[in-house]
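Input record, target 12 of the design panel.
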């Protein structure tokens, strides 16, 4: 019998974390849940521990660890409970873990991703912000560690599935890639009314049920901007080789246009369990639980250009990629602060772009800040402070 893959899920209580547990539960012969982590939702994590019996669980701080410990003890579970950011790095690199699902939201996931990459784990990456901040350093850590990096973002998984396993041929093969975007809940809304939208409206995505941060990012299309940056690193592409097209049905998950202009696309129902199953099983394939596409029931597949007046943030991807290295980290930090301020009703939806643009103007990365994780985290903190100042001015 082959050894079962021991999986650590960072961000287990989130949307991607739960979908990962759903896929894993279909294959007890292939996967073992080794570690589950959560930030605040201790009660939810306790339920997940009861169902999946991990060896280790990690929460944010000592108080929560004590509470989780008590809940688990009441259930007679022997799960070891750890806490804090260092514990996330430790479990991601632990000897009894084979693969890591990076499903934390935001730059908070950078250090554990780097720890997993350096330790040569199979790293399944949903946490796009970690790569947007980490950039070159992140890819170097993957190379040094020698493990596989498997994209879980549906678009990047699509591109990955359209490419051969041998990475060394990718540059010769690809003319450009086309990332598809649903356009989110406001694709048809009059741009001059966008200042009125509420967090509830922004989080009501037509095709996907996701965490609140990525839902707002989909509504502004900053999610696609982050994905353009993510693709630059994952596939080592110059920014001009990455294009975006709106495709409201979310059936084609992205496309590779080859040198000979043959186009390869990956299709499927919009269900994150597919890219998660690809990440878990690659190069094999396993049942994901997603429904199969019914071509006879499909409506038309349509495509349109993204309107720059409605989605001014999209362009910031190419602008920040062409600016000094580290500028994408500034953009990500600004956007995390701006989305949080919008969700807390401290400013308007349309202010998100204002905060992002103003922060990019105010914060210029210095050369030594992109050379180390500490430098990147300092740059991230500097950008967050600048973004907070703009939020206060706008509020
Ligand atoms: P979510 O908000 O549902 O879950 C986030 C998880 O991260 C939770 O388990 C939470 O406890 C944990 N977390 C939050 N802040 C943390 C911190 N500071 N330290 C440690 N843990 C923390 O988010 P999600 O929708 O599951 O998205 C997770 C990541 O996957 C994001 O980067 C998102 O962009 C990406 N992604 C999500 C989807 C999707 O369909 N949900 C699709 C593609 C990519
Ligand atoms: Mg995506």
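The sequence produced for target 12 reads:
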């Amino acid at each position: 019998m082959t050894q079962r893959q021991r999986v650590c899920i960072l961000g287990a209580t989130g949307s991607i974390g739960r979908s990962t547990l759903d896929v894993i539960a279909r294959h007890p012969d292939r996967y073992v849940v080794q570690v589950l982590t959560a930030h605040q939702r201790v009660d939810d994590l306790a339920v997940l521990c009861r169902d999946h019996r991990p060896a280790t669980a990690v929460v944010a701080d000592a108080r929560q660890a004590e509470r989780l410990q008590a809940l688990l003890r009441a259930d007679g579970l022997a799960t070891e409970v750890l806490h804090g950011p260092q514990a996330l790095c430790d479990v991601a690199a632990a000897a009894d873990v084979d693969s890591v699902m990076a499903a934390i939201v935001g730059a908070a996931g950078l250090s554990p991703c780097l720890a997993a990459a350096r330790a040569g784990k199979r790293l399944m990456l949903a946490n796009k912000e970690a790569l947007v901040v980490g950039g070159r350093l992140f890819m170097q850590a993957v190379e040094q560690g020698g493990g596989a990096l498997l994209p879980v973002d549906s678009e990047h998984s699509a591109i990955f599935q359209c490419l051969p396993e041998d990475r060394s041929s990718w540059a010769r093969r690809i003319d450009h890639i086309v990332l598809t975007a649903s356009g989110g809940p406001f694709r048809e809304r009059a741009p001059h009314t966008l200042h009125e939208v509420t967090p509830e409206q922004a989080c009501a995505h037509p095709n996907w049920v996701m965490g609140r941060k990525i839902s707002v990012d989909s509504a502004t299309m900053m999610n696609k901007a982050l994905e353009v940056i993510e693709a630059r690193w994952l596939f080592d592409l110059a920014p001009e080789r990455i294009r975006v097209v709106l495709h409201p049905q979310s059936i084609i998950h992205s496309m590779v246009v080859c040198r000979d202009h043959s186009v390869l696309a990956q299709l499927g129902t919009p269900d994150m369990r597919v890219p998660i199953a690809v990440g878990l099983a690659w190069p094999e394939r396993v049942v994901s639980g997603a429904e199969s596409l019914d071509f006879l029931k499909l409506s038309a597949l349509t495509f349109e250009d993204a309107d720059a007046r409605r989605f001014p943030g999209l362009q910031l991807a190419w602008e920040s990629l062409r600016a000094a290295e580290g500028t994408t980290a500034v953009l990500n930090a600004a956007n995390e602060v701006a989305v949080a301020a919008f969700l807390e009703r401290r400013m308007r939806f349309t202010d998100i772009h204002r905060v992002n643009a103003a922060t990019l103007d105010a914060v210029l990365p210095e050369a030594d800040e992109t050379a180390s994780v500490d430098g990147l985290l300092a740059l991230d903190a500097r950008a967050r402070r600048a973004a907070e100042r703009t939020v206060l001015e706008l509020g």
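The chain has 16 helices and eleven strands.
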